Amino acid sequence: MASKIQKSCAVCGKPANSKCTGCKTDSISRHYCGAACQKNDWPTHKTACKAAQDMRLEKSLARVADIIQRGYYEFRQNTWDTPILMVEDRDDALVITDGVMLDKSKYFISFPQHMVTSERTKAAMLCAWMCNEPLAFMHDLVTDLVKGLDIHVEEVCLSLGRIPRKISYNSPHGGSDHNWPNYFHEALRITSSRSKKQWVIDISGAQYGITRVFWTWGAYVDAYNVNVKKIMALGFNKAMIKDLSDIIGNPSMSYGVVGVVAEHMNEASKKWAIEHNISLSDLLTMEEEEFRQAKDELLQNMSDAVRGFLKANKFDKEFQAAKAYEYKYPGLSGRKCLQTTAKY
Question: How many CB atoms lie within 10 A of CB 234?
Answer without folding.
Answer: 18
